[in-house]
Amino acid sequence: MDFWRKLVAVSIVFYAVLFGWIFWQNLTADTDYPYHLHRIWALTQGYYITDPYLSHGTEFTLKYGAIPLLLGVLIYPVFRVYTVAVLLVIAFCLLWYFSQQLFSKLATARIARLATIIVLLNPLTVMLFVTTKMPFLWGVVFGVLSLNYYLEGKRVVAAVLGAISIITHPLCIGLLAAILMLRFDLKNWLKYYLPVCVLSGVQAVFFLGGSEGGGQIYLPPTLLLVSSLITLFATRQSSRVPCAIALAALAISLAAGYAPTAYFERMAWFVIFISIPFYVELVGSRLRQVVCPVSAFAMVISVFMVCLNPTLARADNPEVYENLLAENEILEILTDGYVRYSGDGSALYVLPFGGVRFSNSGVELHEFSSYENAAEYYDLLLSENASFVMVYQQSPEENYLVELGFPLAFSYENLRVYQVIS
Known about the structure:
By secondary structure, the protein is of the alpha/beta class. Helices cover about 65% and strands about 5% of the residues. The chain has helices at about 5-25, 30-45, 65-80, 85-105, 110-120, 125-130, 135-150, 155-170, 175-180, 185-205, 220-235, 240-255, 265-285, 285-310, 320-325, 330-335, 345-350, 375-385, 395-405, and strands spanning about 50, 60, 340, 355-360, 385-390, 410, 415-420. Strand 1 and strand 2 (about 60) form a beta hairpin. Helix 7 (about 135-150) runs antiparallel to helix 8 (about 155-170). The N and C termini lie far apart (about 70 Å).
């Protein structure tokens, strides 16, 4: 077995273990998993516009991720709780295939093969699968396919696939723009992707709140983006102009307090992704000596990052919510109003089977910092028209619930439900 086949075999085994873990964990693999699975289930119930079970009934079911979600509808009757895991496996196979095609247009076939493996073993890529970023990964697949046609000069197909990419996930506009780091021809790029840019802006304003994530600086992803741009600037002379423009735009957006730094890790991944063929080519004759230790190091770092993933430390147990469905008395009470979920996990998928409707769509950890006192938190509950708040294990919100004197309506193991008193 030659060097290339060994590397492929190691990569397949690595991802087989990873996907085995995702199939085993399913709803508890990451907080995104039950959210996406719920949306697939809601579509199977015929809710193609808004989802009556999330965000007080105002959640757009297909606000992003339409194609993989609709594909999920087709396979859901067979795979049920494993549907999202299956969609991740399909995305992985497509990403491998189309990335190699794209890189073959930027470098030799040998370099394209190795660059693809390095991309897949990149710890950032691994974490995208571990944290079940299913719509994002499918958006990347369509974006990579679009760039293939862009480099072939097929404008209409590239633009259509580019639009599908950012509809699948709005952040994928960054992937389409990343090609400028290697082939800086802004005028020609806009001929292909100007309509896609307009669509991306409209989508950001109407579906993602425009400046969502701006103002607060998340240092690790910001440093990662800056370092990826500086590294490319320093090592590739023809990339200095686009890297300088990107760094200047980044500095301006940070100074203006608009930059959505929480998403900069994805932007850095785009820069690294598109740059890998160049870095592989830069290594040159030492490629074989470098790729093996780099790949091994990447896999070790990936395992380390997975173990440190804060989501894994967040308690979740679908059986607790399944047991609640059997409690007819409390279930009848909960279905009379909206329930605010003070966590982010399997309840989003399990409880709607019993008719429970949520006033939100789960709580990210950074949201807790926006409640400065109990009065503000109470105003939030009123604005969501929440009748109950559900707490599993520990949540900062429970401190406000106790301070406000809300009665405990239900308690089972680590699950507690408080009633909101107007």
